[in-house]
Design brief:
single chain, about 190 residues, mainly alpha, two-stranded antiparallel sheet, 8 helices, about 45% helix, elongated
Length: about 190
Amino acid sequence: AKKERGGAGGKAKALAKAKAKEAALEQARERAGDLDREAVKEKVKGKGGRFKDLMGGKNLSKKKLLKMVDDNRPTGIHLPSGQKGAPQACVDAAFGESPGMSRIRKESKDKFYVCAWVNFQYHVGADKATEPYSAETVDERFDYFKMCVDEVNKLNKRKDATSTAGINFFCDMSEEEKRPYSNGIVMPGMLGAF
């Protein structure tokens, strides 16, 4: 008589192997989610996909941006350290829809976030809950903003998403500053996108 293969031990091994394979696939999906498929496709097609190509038009110097003062921007638009200006297109775009926003990949170079940062400052208006920026505070606020952009893009790339995340007045705030808006509940991973 032939020995029967499988049995309880074989089934357990097969189940463990299937679970390990599913976990590896899930990790691969998460890594792929961090890539901007549209930019990759355009690059492959030879459309350039260069961030610089999206901007076109005139550039606004740091000095000009600081002069963009109104009731909601008493100190103008501040750039983070090392940045010299931003394209006019950043200001002209609708709130949260700066050119190249969806192309920013997690932990990209600062220059890729700057247009979205300028757009945020220009449009956030009276909803802005933090103090006006200064040379001393802008880098910290910019870091919060970059985390928010990363989270918004990550949420919007999910295939199972039933809504669209966006830039809002929470995006330049620390978790502590957001707390009063959420009844003290801090929702990890939601950053500015709630």
